[in-house]
Amino acid sequence: MPKALAVDLPYPSTENLTKDAASARIISPAYADRTSEMTAILQYVFQSVIFSGLGMQENAQTLQAIAIAEMHHLDLLGEMLLGLGTTPVFSARPPYPFRFYSAANVSYATSPQRMLMDDIRGEKQAIRDYESMVRRLDNEQVAAVISRIILDEELHLEKLTKMLEELS
Known about the structure:
Mean pLDDT: 95
Distance between the termini: 27 Å
Number of strands: 0
């Protein structure tokens, strides 16, 4: 199992957060909404299996490494939601138990080029979404964690772009 594909910098602490409903509302879509970390994880795991089945082991391992990094992001977001006073249920707007997460959000393309193009589009969207969150957050601790996650997403975008170029 590969290690996470992440920037070699520590993540800011998620400890000692205080109840902050506004910050929780801002970051909750990144947890388990349509373009969330949950979608990224499931999509990269699915694609890793497809690439492996195509005999493209290096690409499969890279996608696994990205999925592992996204799992860490999901964990960080969950910790922050909990610290901000929200139960991190897998719904569009935690803690409300409706509009539960759906695996229908995942792209099930099986062409290597299409998979990577979908991933690149997803990483670009994640970066835009996270940058928007940072601009709207008043909570500096939460903004610092989100800013650190952006660095990983930029690394993923760079790696996926290179993979697509190598396939073309």
